[in-house]
Amino acid sequence: MRIDRFSHLDWQGILSGIAQDVEPHLGQGRVADYIPALAEQDPRAFAMAFTSLRGETYAVGQSDRPFSIQSISKVFTLVLALQLEGEGLWSRVGREPSGTPFNSIVQLEREKGRPRNPFINAGAIAVTDSVVGHCGSASPAQTILSFVRRCAGSDAPAIDERVAASERDYGDRNRALGYFMKSFGVVKNAVPDVLDTYFSQCAIAMSAAELSRAGLFLAGGGNDPRTGEAISDHERVDRVNATMMLCGHYDMSGDFAFRVGLAGKSGVGGGILAVIPEVGCVTVWSPGLNAAGNSLAGTLALEWFSERTGVNLF
Ligand code: GLN
To answer: Which of 62, 207, 217, 267 has its Cβ near the most Cβ atoms within 10 Å?
Structure first.
């Protein structure tokens, strides 16, 4: 296993060094302020966690404090939707970088309502629509949450109802994306139901340590090494990771790939999840965002993690 190549590393020491070096950068960037619950976050908060394929978790900072995972949820919903709908999902959503901000609508008209990728908001809403369509009488938001909990091996991940309510209150741009796609037949279910589910999934909260365990199957070829459970299959997980590498950071996906060299997904809550195939999953949380809505200090911390451990895929 590739993790064996890194057995000489002092993972905890590396994380502690990063936490120290990142200190002067905390508070830089801009905390998301489109909803009050996110605007109240401490701009100097920081957490980082790494769970190896051996199942050990190493962590620094406020790594047990739940935060709003926001768009990181899109990775879990994509894996779930592919499981429910199969590869046909790709006829509704592409897998090309968008080069546009996460909530942009500009490409949608030109491309007949088919979003560029599953990680921009439009694409994630189309993917959520797929989950809604497969849930029957079950609650789609609870189905997504249960899946995230299964990945994490814990019931700790929860929907922060206050964040979900604010997402709904300030969600008109996302609703516009939903109705626009519905007019092209890309979204098939009732837009309010789809958006309600989307707002709830964005409001899932969990800690950096839990998130690094939840993402472990993405590094393990679809298997959770702690339980041996197959959460997804190898080929699918490889493809989700490839899509994350190219599209996980919106119009700064190239910058993230250049600096970190790992597949990663960011959220406006300040979290980032990055996957190191056959090695582990590393997460970071720091609410100050760069111009593209990705954690500023978090990206820096991951860049150092990649440099200091040598886990860069290239
Ligand atoms: N809830 C946010 C939205 O829908 C998620 C965006 C993000 O994390 N980039 O706009």
So the answer is: 267
**What does the alpha-carbon distance between residue 55 and residue 58 come to, in Å, rounded to a whole number?**
10
Which ligand 1 atom is nearest residue 202's CA?
1
Which ligand 1 atom sits closest to the C-alpha of 293?
9
* Residue 186 Cα distances to 76, 80, 95, 122, 247, angstroms: 20, 18, 15, 10, 20
* Same domain (yes/no): 298, 222: yes
Give the integer Cα–Cα distance in Å for 267 and 84: 24
Residue 25 near residue 296, CB atoms below 8 Å: yes
CATH of the domain at 77: 3.40.710.10
Take residue 313 and report the two structure tokens written for it. 């895929």
Is the CA virtual torsion 228, 7, 300, 37 positive or negative? positive
For residue 237, give both structure tokens: 């997980």
Q: For residue 60, what is the DSSP state?
A: E
Q: What is the pTM of this model?
A: 0.98
Rounded to whole angstroms, how far apart are CA atoms 244 and 69?
A: 16
Of 124, 171, 170, 166, nearest in space to 144 by CA? 124
Q: Under 8 Å CB-to-CB from 247, ≥6 apart: which residues?
A: 95, 96, 97, 98, 116, 117, 118, 119, 120, 253
Residues 61 and 77 both lie in one domain: no
191 lines ligand 1 (CB under 6 A): no
What residue type is 219 in one-letter code?
Answer: A
**Ligand 1 centroid – CA 39 distance (Å):** 13
Q: Does any ligand 1 atom lie closer than 6 A to the CB of residue 29?
A: no
Flag whether 314 is in a domain.
no
